[in-house]
Amino acid sequence: MSYWAIVSRNHPLSDPWTVVRGTPSSEESLTVDLTWRKSDQIYRIDSGREYQDYLPVTEEFVEWFKTKMAERTGGRRAVEPRWGPEFYHWAIVLGRFTLDDPMTVVRADGHGDDLHEFTRDLVWRPGKADRFTRLMGARGPDNDAVLITGEEAQRFERIQADRVREHRF
Question: Strand, helix or coil at 34?
């Protein structure tokens, strides 16, 4: 079994997007709920569909990353089984926006392929992956993409409705 860290300019080896394990014929990526799921991330990077890169890592690195992933999620399980296909949600916290009042919320299916944003029209709309990648990768002291639960995403839907009604953006 081989392991790779998925890295980018905003996610160096010290803070990778995720880790992937695989053999020449299959691969799996580590999900936010610390399980391995079928993946084609290495293929997407090699084919130019993704801008990230991957670096070989050890099993010890993978164990360290599992601890880091658990810290990112605050120990919360992000998978919401009632959605049917699993969705993960991230609150985008930039500038004046906080986790209690985020700029927006982005959701992705269980494989991270189908990205949507909850819009001012009060619906989930597919968006451009590069915009979400920038939002979710814009980490810094006052910027982050914080993994949240489905209930917290529903709370944001109410916040967004209030913003629309009160014309405050």
Answer: coil
